[in-house]
Amino acid sequence: MTTAVGTIAQPLRSGLGSAFGVILILLAWDLAARATAGSFVLAAPAEVLNWLVANRGLMGRALAETLANAAAGFVIGNLAAILLAVVALAWPRAERAVMNLALLIFCLPLVATGPILRVLLGPGDGPQIWLAALAVYYTTLVPLMVGLRAAPASWLDLVRIYGRGRWTEIVRVRARAALPYLFAGLQIAAPAAFLGAMVGEFTGAERGMGVLTVRFIRAMDVPAIWALACVAALVSILVFAAIGWLARFVLDEKPPVIIAPAQAVGALGVTARMLRTLTLAVLALALWWAVIQIAQLNPFFAKGPDDVARALLSAPDAAETRARLGTALVETAVYVVPGWAAGLGLGAAIAIVLILFPPIAAVAMPVAVALRAIPIVTTAPLIVLVLGRGAVGTISLVAVMVFFPSLVACLHGLRQAPGQIMDVFDSYAAGPVSRLIHVRIPAMLPAFFASARMSVPAAILAVTVVEWLATGRGIGSLMALSASLSEYDMLWSAIMATAVLAVLFHAGVSALERVVLARTAPEQVG
């Protein structure tokens, strides 16, 4: 009887907590709208609801278009992530090349890739679908690789004792261990896919919520803009919740204890490092050149590695080009690290608070998903109005765009504390803080560093978008200006410089990760 009552009471408490959270969000929203009345940056909930009722047909058609593109991109991007992860694990020698090329492609800024895809694919849904896929594949690939390595050594030994090969190990053991991480990646990817599809629609689509967003921004129709943002947030929240429900239904086992000997991080020889870096650079340049040649792109628009080298080194205005590019790159780099650190720390801190005080999740998670799903063209004016266009406003905008992957990954990592160890702590009546410090945070570290690596290109992307939309400085503004003036040498040079910056930053985070995880999670250090 007691069990039955508890089973009924738990969903009831959860539902009441969610309802209370929604009410708090609506009250805070209404107060903020009243405080900013007349500034044309925020509409009240009642205004948004009235607009949606009056324009439900228009919204329904736009939503159907964007949702279809986002769903297609979500499927394509996540299937690509799974395929890349399997290839990297099945052929360990190829893992570093696969991950680095995946990183390079993910680092291409949307400010530049959107127009390029529009020129390459022409009118239609192609750019929207591929931008949605590009927005999600890496955020699923990174946690999936962590999960595939999180198999207990005893399971792997059993496979080898029975004489099974690498493929059996991947399918029967590693895939099972990776399922929790896959679901975490899918939850991170859900709002990113919808946002990617909307960004694709900004570049010249004929239909969809992105098209309406551009139209209403030009018309300064604030209720319409926030109605679109609310629908985008609601869809992302529902998909996020559905994936979470599916994960709870599928994952009914306690996380296993993973025991592996601590590893020393060996110093790779200078020659070997240089050779590996040179190989990756040649591979990336060859891929860049091959895409242009195979697609037979117009040389006026599509610039290859040789064109960029000429623009930076031997062209009459090469010195001026390098100076403009260097200045813009420094202006961007100054904000990347603080914004990345702020977003990463905020996500981890909120995850810890939600573990210690679970009822708060009813308010915090919908807000977190909404902030990730609402296009920055909607939130940027509000944050700039409050915090200004300087360092504080830029860093805050970057943190808002970065913290969601950190929150989801760290929350998942905290829940991966091994069940047997938690039982031991329970038997000694250990408190939640003690369990947090000694069990949950060490279990969280692989997920934390995975989110740190995922957030590197996201932070750079965020800075470039903020520069494009709000500040008018840095590499983002330079790329937007170059595209509008058809200065394609400068545009492609800026794309290359941004990718190099992201790779270098990512390499630094990866080096720190290897040092820490070599002692706390040796199975993750390859």
UniProtKB/TrEMBL annotation:
Main location: membrane
Domain ABC transmembrane type-1: 63-247, 329-513
Xref: InterPro entries: MetI-like, MetI-like_sf
Membrane-protein topology: Multi-pass membrane protein
Transmembrane among keywords: yes
The keyword Transferase is annotated on this UniProt entry: no
Biological source species: Paracoccus albicereus
Protein location: Cell membrane
Residues annotated as transmembrane: 12-29, 66-91, 97-117, 129-148, 181-203, 224-246, 282-302, 333-357, 369-388, 394-414, 445-470, 490-509
Stated family: Belongs to the binding-protein-dependent transport system permease family.
Protein name: ABC transporter permease subunit
Keyword list, A-Z: Cell membrane, Membrane, Transmembrane, Transmembrane helix, Transport
SUPFAM superfamilies the record matches: MetI-like
